[in-house]
Amino acid sequence: MANVIFKDVHKSFGSFVALEKLDLDIRDGEFVALLGPSGCGKSTTLRMLAGLDFPTSGEISIGGRVVNDLAPGKRDIAMVFQSYALYPHMTVGENIGYPLKKRGIKGAARAEAVQKAADLLQLGALLDRKPKQLSGGQQQRVALGRALVREPQVFLLDEPLSNLDAKLRSYMRAELIELHRRLGKTMVYVTHDQLEAMTMASRIAVMHGGHVQQFDTPDAIYNRPANRFVAGFIGTPPMNQVEGTVEGGDFVIAGHRVPIDRTAYSADLHDGPAVLGVRPEAISIGSGEGLPATVRLAENTGHETIVTLELPDKRRISARVEAARRLDVGQPVALRLDPAAIHLFEATENGARLNLDDTPASVIPMRST
Amino acid sequence: MKLLRPVLLNVFTWSLVFLIAFPLVWMIVTSLKPQSELFRIPPTWIPESVTFEHYWRLLSETPFLRYFRNSVVLATTTTLFVVALGTLGAYSLVRFTYRGRETLALLVLFTYLLPSVVLIIPLYLMMVTLGLSNTLFSLILAHTTFALPYALWLLRSFMEGIPEDLENAALVDGATRIGAFRDVIFPQLLPGIISTALFTFILSWNEYLYALVLVNSDAVAPLTTGVMSMLISAFNIEWSLLMAASVMMSLPLIVVFAFLQSYLTSGFGAGGVKG
């Protein structure tokens, strides 16, 4: 059992509050991504789990054991750093063997474990090289090897792929998923890249301003965002958010009515100001009936086209259409929104979502680019 | 015009080289000349007969070797002190956050800005109070005080170049803080430590003023003051012995430099952290 629990953890640096009331319950064997923009507290969370930083208050436990006062080396964890942090004066073999050396594993036993880890990561031929003689991808694998050679309870990964080029990144992403499946160990993965989080994690903790905004499966994060921040952070382009007013069975945008199904939303939804959220793929562009708009930009990426549309009150939203669709700049169109895909949020800065969560997640196909 | 530039540049450079090298060459030449040839006019550039008698006399008839031993002990111990204290201090200044850290660092540098003449009398009085006057140890302490501030800053900048993640990685891998320092920080810091050691050694080896004021016993005098008082009196300067002594005083520095220089450059540029 190697579950990880953060209980009511606070962390401040002087007067700056980095984390406030952090509660996370990471299950044994789970792959959890901590996702958020820079400064959201995700790295601090990981560093506290590693023992490189200490919580101001609260409790952190690994496998049922409170680790607050435990040195990093005694927590049975391994960490992969963004910079890889390979020891420059040691060979690849010595780098991978270092955690074993520090645990008093000697001679043949150590050599065998190093060889096994190296073979797993196809580093067998490079054991005598120094880190600076390796490519970025190889260095990355050495860092991984050093982490897994000891078979720790929990793996911590701090943006491990962000220094790789796009092609290698997608390759390593697949490698990591495979590795997690094979090892079955708990992994906590910090990233600012939503694609990495969405594709790799079994659950994602979206963080912002020192708070966990939502801790859920990628599917739920995408289809049932808890609030406006999550809605606006996930998806490329992110969910459109349009301020307007609720009037009976309609949502009014700049004098135009969009029908909504009041029964799909919680009792907290009252007539008055609210924010309508809709994913770009839930907007269909046609003519005649619908919300009037003007095409401002059409970006063809090859397999789809992202259209920027201007509403009558000059606000802009984006829609996703098939690549073959021809749309001219300046062309007036009418928009129809899929009623089942309309999210409504409170009209505050980071308003909570008001939908009742019986919306089947599969209504909206998940897309990622 | 195109041809003139390199010619002028060469003339300039070589005159500079000559200007700097001449006293050194003259020192060596003089130390090898027999007494009779020393003051001949016009001077002989290449000695007509080469003699090592001055070196022999220096080693057999004077306390030169004692001074030499004193200097070796003095410079080596000072270097050890300064490197040990400087490394630990730099580590603290870079890795730990505490109140007044920057002020402390600036204050240390500030002491370096004071001319040593200002500090020498208080330092002398302190040594007398401590009962250390006229000992080699008082000189070691004095040299440490003036070499340490600069060494601290030098080592601090080297230390800042070592990514914190390296140490963090070692900690996570199971090393203690001391262990991480020994296994990871120290090897990375070695070029910095060597240049600091070199700097301190040279400073201590060549130092004259403190040695003159703090030590007046012949038994503990280092080379600088020992050779001066032995060979230079109000009535006479033993030029050939002085030059031979100067050559032998310079030898250790040349050897140390030649030995460590390749190491100095090889340490740089090795990096295991990307970005």
TrEMBL record, chain A:
GO terms for biological process: carbohydrate transport. SMART domains: AAA (SM00382). The keyword Transport applies. Coiled coil: none annotated. InterPro entries: AAA+_ATPase, ABC_transporter-like_ATP-bd, ABC_transporter-like_CS, ABC_transpr_MalK-like, ABC_transpr_MalK/UgpC-like, Mo/tungstate-bd_C_term_dom, NA-bd_OB-fold, P-loop_NTPase. Residues 4-234 form the ABC transporter domain. Signal peptide: none annotated. Belongs to the ABC transporter superfamily. This is Sugar ABC transporter ATP-binding protein.
From TrEMBL, chain B:
Gene3D superfamilies: MetI-like. Its main location: membrane. Keywords: Cell membrane, Membrane, Transmembrane, Transmembrane helix, Transport. Residues 68-260 form the ABC transmembrane type-1 domain. InterPro entries: BP-dep_ABC_trans_perm, MetI-like, MetI-like_sf. It holds the Pfam family BPD_transp_1. It comes from the Bacteria. The chain crosses the membrane at residues 7-29, 72-94, 106-130, 136-155, 184-203, 209-232, 239-260. GO terms for cellular component: plasma membrane. SUPFAM superfamilies: MetI-like. GO terms for biological process: transmembrane transport. It is found in: Cell membrane. It is a multi-pass membrane protein. Belongs to the binding-protein-dependent transport system permease family. This is ABC transmembrane type-1 domain-containing protein. It comes from Pseudoponticoccus marisrubri.
